[in-house]
Amino acid sequence: MTGASDLQALRDRMRAFAAARQWDGYHDPKSVLLALVGEVGELAELFQWLPADQARELARREPLRTRVGEEISDVLLYLVLLADVVGIDLATAAHAKLSEADRRYPPGIDPVRS
Amino acid sequence: MTGASDLQALRDRMRAFAAARQWDGYHDPKSVLLALVGEVGELAELFQWLPADQARELARREPLRTRVGEEISDVLLYLVLLADVVGIDLATAAHAKLSEADRRYPPGIDPVRS
Amino acid sequence: MTGASDLQALRDRMRAFAAARQWDGYHDPKSVLLALVGEVGELAELFQWLPADQARELARREPLRTRVGEEISDVLLYLVLLADVVGIDLATAAHAKLSEADRRYPPGIDPVRS
Amino acid sequence: MTGASDLQALRDRMRAFAAARQWDGYHDPKSVLLALVGEVGELAELFQWLPADQARELARREPLRTRVGEEISDVLLYLVLLADVVGIDLATAAHAKLSEADRRYPPGIDPVRS
User: For residue D85, what is the nearest residue in chain C, using CA coordinates?
Assistant: First the structure.
């Protein structure tokens, strides 16, 4: 991928995709969020019965790899759409959240109890 | 945000964040996916009781706007982490999925039945 | 349905179902939870694009009604299984939670802010 | 728990709880479903970083056991509410789904591929 911003490029394609189909009217936040939940569910189905200690390697191999890439993408696209619907710049927000996490969780803390 | 790729920049920060805390060992796919589900749940809690036809405007105003940006970011960061754990380039995968959607849903189709 | 406890009857059928197929080995909590997330996703897909103010009536009519009943059931069955895996009596726990909610949310409180 | 039906008893308590607070107006299906997603998220947070092979034993011990029981209950209560809102008898629907599963997955099938 090239260009100044992947996330803005995806947002712009999502906008064009919805506009070409006049689907914008469906894109209230609660609907988009439920669509995102649907895609998270499809992602979960790919992993649910895999042995936890083999899941990483299995997901890196075909045919699972392609399926996982598709479902992760679907979640991302609805997330990009939701951010756009409510007027949030996703990259800026995510970097801010990471900076906060850097401050909040100093190295040496166990994630299970944090 | 500047630079060649927002998503790669977020991935690199997530890698550094995890490495500095030695949290990589926790990042098997099923665990990261459950963490993502946790963040989707927090996002859902922000919207659950809002009237559907006012949710967009309410989410664009403070104090909700900042909260929504934080939770959308948390979902994105776990999605970036999951893609990294299984070796998927998220921008490439998402653009491929959008190209497929362009072919699969020609303009004029109703999303409710597609 | 008859008998002293619906939830125990469902639990007993789930146990017999899993035992007959030797699927018990798959039923660690994180796997069952991801399976539940998958079913919640399927439930969300049934509602995602429905107009919020018509969703109730639409879900009460066929063909949606049967589909909703199936997906709600799938979520319930994985919830019953998860409770059984971790040794929790679901009816007792749910009544305790409702009693706590009765104390915690006195009549007159708005759910949006509670 | 005693009585003819646990699930009906929970439904009746949920009805009384909502009526006493005049919360019924909030209980359109998409809102209840998002509330359920929120509770599934809280349940996921309890399990996310636990080692998969120790999760069952850890969840059977305090203090996790009580927390898991609470969150499983919250999911169940919103599921009972959702079924009630759309007029579905949950026990009947779940038994029908189990009977279908009995036919659909004959013993000897691996769940990973079914």
Answer: C56
Q: Tens of pLDDT along C13-67? A: 999 999 999 999 999 999 999 999 999 999 999 999 999 999 999 999 999 999 9
Provide CB contacts within 8 A for C108, sequence distance 6+. Answer: D21
Tokens matching residue A79:
């997330």
| pLDDT score, position D112 | 57
Q: What would the 3-class secondary structure string for B8-73 be?
A: HHHHHHHHHHHHHHCCHHHCCHHHHHHHHHHHHHHHHHHHCCCCCCCHHHHHCCCCHHHHHHHHHH
Instruction: Report the gap between the CA of D53 and the closest CA in chain A (Å).
Output: 8
Is pLDDT of B35 > 70? yes
Minimal CA separation from C89 to chain A, in Å: 24
Global ipTM? 0.93
pTM: 0.94
Distance CA D71, CA D73 (A): 5
Q: Which residues contact B59 (CB under 8 A, 6 or more apart)?
A: A29, A85, A86, B46, B47, B50, B65, B68
> Using CA atoms, how far apart are residues B36 and B82, in angstroms rounded to an integer?
9
Minimum distance, in Å, between the CA of residue B3 and any CA atom of chain D: 33
Task: Test C112 with B34 for CB contact under 8 angstroms.
Answer: no
Q: Given a cut of 70, is residue C112 above it in pLDDT?
A: no
**Hey, of A28, A33, A43, A67, which one would you mutate to test binding to chain D, going by the most D CBs within 10 A of its CB?**
A33
